[in-house]
Amino acid sequence: MSYAVVQKELSALPIEALQRAFRHVPGLTALDAQVLGNDAFGILVKDFPLENATAMQGALRSEGIETEIVETARLPAMPPMKQLRRLSCSEAGLELFDPLGRGFVVAWQHVMLLAAGAVKTSEFVRKVEMKPKPASSYGEDGGSDEGLQPEVNYKEVRAVHLLLEIVMTRAVLRYSVVADKFDFGYLGQRKTGSIPVDFVAMATDLAAYAPHAGFNRGMSSLLDGGGTIFSYPTKNFPENPDGQRRGGTVI
Questions:
Q1: How far is 175 from 165, CA to CA, in rounded Å?
Q2: For the chain, how many structural domains are there in total?
Q3: How many Cβ atoms are within 10 Å of 159's Cβ, its own excluded?
Q4: Phi (first) and psi of residue 56, to 5 degrees
Q5: FRET pair for 204, CA 20 to 30 Å: which of 89, 104, 154, 167?
Q6: Distance of CA 38 to the CA centre of its chain
């Protein structure tokens, strides 16, 4: 049987504290803190033997970090995520559109969970630079072919994105909205062109049509705080609809 170590409090952990704690955990080193540090939030590790999980819990407690040990099997598996670029809300139901623009309607009672938040994510950006050709380069006529040639590199960029997830009844379907890649056209005259404002308007619509759905802490903050968007350092913090920590990675 394997176990996960899960934070009790919603807070990012200092790398220095992780480095000190990891020195006392079998299978981990201070160097691992650098690798795990960016995502050390919520579920810290999974698939650990109980002995190692217990050692990690004790080491983190000595740094003032409280955690729980949970059987990995108890962390609910979320369904594969489908990206949404467009949706529409009406009394008739939630209309979702596939990449080809074909829409289908889901009855509101099938919306089980709404999760929202500002989340820091990593992505690789393709960058093309023109570099001088090497001196050994020759043209077709055998002469020197001086000039520039493209050099492609990929750079990891960490940026904050506004995310919203919709999980359907029995967690059979899961949809994700990335605000800066989303078409807010359904808002009509309410569309402002400001991504944060339009994002809040869409989230508010979804909550109004599906008041029975569970909300994560970010969604509750958005609704109760007058449009305040809650920030998550990563998507790795697990919450139940009531905001309590357990399995899953719904923002």
A1: 6
A2: 3
A3: 11
A4: -65, -40
A5: 104
A6: 12
111 and 208 assigned to the same domain: yes
Which residues does 226 contact at the CB level (< 8 Å), separation at least 6? none
Mean pLDDT by 10 residues, the chain (251 residues): 84 82 84 67 83 93 92 80 94 94 94 90 73 63 62 75 91 90 96 96 96 90 84 58 41 59
pTM above 0.70, yes or no: no
Count CB neighbours of 99 within 10 A: 10
Report yes or no on 184 lying in a domain. yes
Please give the pLDDT value at position 184: 97
Quote the domain boundaries for residue 142. 124-155
The position carrying tokens 């000190």 is 20
Nearest by Cα to 48 from 32, 29, 69, 33: 69
pLDDT at 250: 53
Tell me the CATH number at 228.
2.30.29
CB 88, CB 187: distance < 8 Å: no
Helix orientation angle between 217-224 and 195-209, rounded to the nearest 10 degrees: 100
8 A C-beta contact, residue 176 and residue 83: yes
